[in-house]
Design goal:
about 190 residues, alpha/beta, eight-stranded mixed β-sheet, two-stranded antiparallel sheet, 5 helices, 10 strands, about 30% strand, globular
Amino acid sequence: MRKIVLMMSLSLDGYMEGPNRELDWHLVDEELHTHFNDVLRDMGVFLDGRVSYELMADYWPTADRDPDAPAPVADFARIWREKPKLVFSRTLHRAEWHTTIVRDVVVEDIMALKAQEGGDLALGGATLAAEFMRHDLVDEYWLYIHPVILGRGRPLFSQAEELPKTDLRLIETRTFGNGVVLLRHGRN
């Protein structure tokens, strides 16, 4: 059965974005971007909320047309365009690039998706992640801890009191040359 993998970049103090939704503190260099590409290339489907999808759709469809784009950026643009995507939104009415709009997180539908053949399911977006966590649907947490303290912003686990207790085991740690540390945990 396929796994649902939450991949999220966080500051050392647990924020996934700054107070004004800024992400400029992410230290995505060539090594880290190549790692993301290698992981995401093998995923079967991208699962995103509307905000995450719209951020991605604003840049990635044409990012590889820039002649100055670094190789990992051009590579990811192709990955993103071709990968099947499910966007969970009640307000989005149109989406492109192999994207299906889903109105609600229905546990039975997600379990049926997990039972299909193919690569794992990459989950992105804090609001959608919280919904998946409330339904105890996340199988692995890939948290990329960036060496910065923001002091304020939007925490990934802002609704932790609503989440079921989930025992996890450490699967992998990896330190990148830029100081980002991957902490990969899975269900016990």
